[in-house]
Design goal:
The chain is mainly α. It has one domain. It has four helices and no strands. 79% of the residues lie in helices and 0% in strands.
């Protein structure tokens, strides 16, 4: 039963993250961000992040929380930019290249962070 919960939580995180990639592309009016590509990008980020977390646990290395947060956000923006730098396009059909891809990644990660803060606020409100 625990494995099912873990897999469902991974699927939920990947699905929500994919939606935010699509919303970020819509906000910036970029094309070329398809559902399969958004799902693949979100899956890559989640599984590489999980793998790195597991490796740190096995190595018995526990970095400070601020370092993990800075590295995690930077890593997510970099992987997203790498995935979309030659696939996302401006409305006129030109590729967004690296600056536009970093902007797309930043907006998607920002939406994820706002959603996470909203969930934390709801959890705190429900507890009290």
């Amino acid at each position: 039963m625990l494995v099912i919960y873990i897999l469902l939580s991974f699927a939920l995180v990947i699905g929500v993250s994919s939606v935010f990639w699509k919303i970020a592309a819509r906000i910036l009016r970029y094309g070329g961000v398809t559902w399969p590509l958004a799902l693949l990008t979100a899956t890559t980020i989640v599984f590489i992040g999980g793998l790195l977390r597991g490796l740190l646990h096995v190595a018995r290395f526990s970095p400070p929380e601020w370092l993990g947060l800075v590295f995690g956000v930077s890593f997510t923006i970099a992987i997203g930019a790498w995935c979309f730098h030659d696939r996302a396009v401006h409305p006129d059909g030109k590729p967004v290249d690296w600056p536009g891809a970093f902007k797309l990644s930043g907006v998607a990660v920002g939406l994820n962070l706002v959603f996470a803060l909203l969930l934390i606020a709801v959890g705190v409100a429900v507890e009290s």
